[in-house]
Amino acid sequence: MENIKSYINANKDRFLNELIALLKIPSISADSAYKNDVLKSAEFVRDSLKEAGCDNVEICETEGYPIVYGDKTIDPNLPTILVYGHYDVQPADPLELWDSSPFEPVIKNTDLHPEGAIFARGACDDKGQMYMHVKALEFMTSTNQLPCNVKFMIEGEEEVGSSSLSTFVKENQEKLANDVILISDTGMIAKDIPSITTGLRGLSYVEVEVTGPNRDLHSGLYGGAVANPINVLTKMIATFHDENNHITIPGFYDKVEELSRQERDDMAKAPFSLTNYKAALDIDAVYGEEGYTTNERNSIRPTLDVNGIWGGYTGEGAKTVIASKAFAKISMRLVPNQDWNEITNLFKVHFENIAPKGVTVKITPHHGGQGYVTPTNSIGYKAASKAYETTFGKTPIPQRSGGSIPIVSLFEKELKSKTILMGFGLDSDAIHSPNEHFGIFNYLKGIETIPLFYKYFTELKAK
Ligand code: BES
Ligand code: MN
Ligand code: MN
Predict the structure, then answer these.
(1) Distance between CA 451 and CA 138 in Å, rounded?
(2) Structure confidence at residue 32 (pLDDT)
(3) Ligand 2 center from residue 250 Cα (angstroms)
(4) What are the extents of the domains in the chain?
(5) 4-200+371-462 carries CATH number 3.40.630.10
(6) What atom in ligand 1 is closest to the CA of residue 205?
(7) 91-126: buried (b, 16+ CB within 10 Å) or exposed (e) per residue?
(8) Which tens digits make up the pLDDT trace of 234-253?
(9) The pLDDT value given to residue 367
(10) pLDDT digits (tens, 9 = 90+) for 431-459
(11) For ligand 1, atom 14, which residue shows the shortest CA distance?
(12) Of 36, 51, 184, 399, which is the most exposed, with the fewest CB atoms less than 10 Å away?
């Protein structure tokens, strides 16, 4: 496309300042104290879509946080790209581990980003990546190079399970009709190694509660004579994996699709350094399911992890007490074909079965969703691949990610269209963690690469 590099160069500072303004709004969807900020963020996105050249822009109210919709139709005979992203962010805690305040964005240079990176909650996930699409649209409309029709759908509940969006998608199939869905909410292998995400894991998230005696008890008077819910819960959790770190829930692996030797060999060709991986995390060894590599463990294999565990006395000093209750939050990352409702049910039945006499258990399912895989021979994939080749000078590597964007499988089911995941984040961006950041290089490379996807997709579709 013409002049894209010079356009970005000329507008670079403004692109950064606009994103910084958006990052200043603490749109934490999980915490109702930030409700007004989440709504303010939606308005910001609406205004920016208008300015970038969308014709119809609206804030669509839902039972939860609104969905920002915008479109521009240049010719109904041309293809339509639907861009999805989210304007909500994860909570910022623990605050004391941030080097700068999460909602006062600063640009700092790092070893990996000598040209600077923006530090703020949401810098990469997903405000920074979503805003690349807004600026890419601005470039195309203002230089008269938009090659096809476009729709935007930016939601505010991704980090809490996208429940309003699922309803919205089911009720607005015509409005959202498209030829391909384009999302930047994932990562790439390295700053100089572009990749296209071809898979996402599904998710089942449950909370468990183990109750023993009807009240907290003196651990001397009662200790040893009644079931201690914390002892029991940790013992139950310890049985979820066998000596090979295989998950023991009956039926858990029944629908897991085993990859062929060829597919696994192809995966192993992606550049990866175990030494660097360990060094980045300060660990002396990796850990996981026997018979699989690190990259397989975190993408094509399902997992079960305790995300939080609490109960009893955790204050200062010592209190001799047997708690009445113990709790844990557990996530299971799933692979395509595993149904998240089925897995949630298998978990529930198993957890009830292994609970010993003397306690009662309660299992509360939270949100979840299906995994996703997409082929590399579609027009969408080919267009994305060509776009990266042009801007990075390298063919991108297909890669299945371990993360989840549950709404993607719902898009396929309800809108019958494939999603192309053009992520520009890096593992080191620390999404969901303190000091989240997004490289300026990555941000601008995204703005440069996206319009080429539009161009090649339109061209390949016309053939
Ligand atoms: N953008 C992430 C998912 C992601 C990140 C996928 C990097 C692949 C690479 C998304 O915002 C997210 O955090 N998803 C949640 C699930 C959701 C239901 C809360 C996740 O993966 O934990
Ligand atoms: Mn995200
Ligand atoms: Mn996220």
Answers:
(1) 10
(2) 97
(3) 32
(4) 4-200+371-462, 202-256+302-369
(5) yes
(6) 18
(7) bbeeeeebeeebbebeeeeeeebeebbbbbbbbbbb
(8) 999 999 999 999 999 999 99
(9) 87
(10) 999 999 999 999 999 999 999 999 999 99
(11) 404
(12) 36
